[in-house]
Design brief:
Chain lengths: 123, 110
């Protein structure tokens, strides 16, 4: 079964840092690009970042550029999101999502999604 | 920046057909594929349509997608509505390396 499990969420003060992880199983992780997508409470979906299968291509939403860093470890079947200089508006459930196509260095369609991890930025 | 606009909410009765629109702000929506995701309360999104009009395995053929270049919009049509279809629906496309989601449409089946 293809599965994505996020972890690392929690409560952090404004200006603080947090590192999210996404553990993948049930598919060849190293052949798929991956994404982070977030959803603020009661709001819609917002794409955050993309990383290609080999980490050679990375994209960020303007809202997180310069503060967040996406990375992956194909040997550990894991995706990461390092979040620095956190703001109240970063409060959201963060989902990792697999790009459907293999060995494709641009965002495609997302399937599956993990169950999400909640990040709350508050003093 | 490229944006996708959806109606905030739609409602329809069981057994009927509903169409949700997704309008592109600029350029041609037909230039890049459009996807549709369903999100039930408390759950992660799942794909109901990809590449404009393709259904993943397991998605019933009551769900269909289309593109209308004349109005620069994509549409998700759900026929034979069931109460289980009640959910939020999001369209998604891309503009180069930038992924764009529509604001979401809440479908009420009453």
């Amino acid at each position: 079964e293809v599965q994505l499990v996020e972890s690392g969420g929690g409560l952090v003060q404004p200006g603080g840092s947090l590192r999210l992880s996404c553990a993948a199983s049930g598919f060849t992780f190293s052949s798929h690009s991956m994404n982070w997508v977030r959803q603020a409470p009661g709001k819609g979906l917002e794409w955050v970042s993309f990383i290609s299968s080999s980490s050679s291509t990375i994209y960020y939403a303007d809202s997180v550029k310069g503060r967040f860093t996406i990375s992956r470890d194909n040997a550990k079947n894991s995706l990461y999101l390092q979040m620095n200089s956190l703001r109240a508006e970063d409060t959201a459930v963060y989902y990792c999502a697999r790009d459907n196509l293999e060995y494709y260095d641009f965002p495609d369609w997302f399937d599956p999604w993990g169950q999400g991890t909640l990040v709350t930025v508050s003093s | 920046n490229f944006m996708l606009t959806q109606p905030h909410s739609v409602s329809e009765s069981p057994g009927k057909t509903v169409t949700i629109s997704c309008t592109g702000s600029s350029g041609s929506i037909a230039s890049n594929y459009v996807q549709w995701y369903q999100q039930r309360p408390g759950s992660a999104p799942t794909t109901v349509i990809y590449e404009d009009n393709e259904r993943p395995s397991g998605v019933p053929d009551r769900f269909s997608g289309s593109i209308d270049s004349s109005s620069n919009s994509a549409s998700l049509t759900i026929s034979g509505l069931k109460t289980e279809d009640e959910a939020d629906y999001y369209c998604q496309s891309y503009d180069g390396g930038n992924v764009v989601f529509g604001g979401g449409t809440k479908l009420t089946v009453l």
